[in-house]
């Protein structure tokens, strides 16, 4: 079974971001197909070099094999360029978002 977690809020407004990254990493270690889609302000979690645990936590999730996606129009709206994002995070457009929701992941968990 494959699961996609969708986040909208930043790690500074909710502790759900840390929970979701931990859950997704644990699921991947159990050999499940899992992804995290960051939209709206949650994309700020992907900025390299933050002095918070999220940079390291997200990097560990990526190393474990969790697919992490950022909705590119939301990144653009916040002035966030690919060069500032943790390596391994995938930028996607609305079309790719629809593709992964419809074709890749069987379960969707929206954390807003």
Structural description of this entry:
With 112 residues, the chain is α/β, with parallel strands linked by helices. It has a single domain (2-111), classed as Hypothetical Protein Ychn, Chain: A. Helix content is 38%, strand content 22%. The protein has helices at residues 16-29, 53-64, 72-77, 94-104; strands at residues 2-7, 33-38, 67-71, 90-92, 107-111. It has a five-stranded parallel beta sheet with strand order 4-3-2-1-5, sandwiched between helices. The chain is globular, with a radius of gyration of 13 Å. The mean pLDDT is 88.
Tag the structure with descriptive keywords.
112 residues, alpha/beta, Hypothetical Protein Ychn, Chain: A, five-stranded parallel beta sheet, 4 helices
Question: Can you lay out the helices and strands and say which pair or pack?
Answer:
Elements lengths: L1 E6 L8 H14 L3 E6 L14 H12 L2 E5 H6 L12 E3 L1 H11 L2 E5 L1
Parallel strand pairs: 1-2, 1-5, 2-3, 3-4
Helix pairs in contact: 1-2
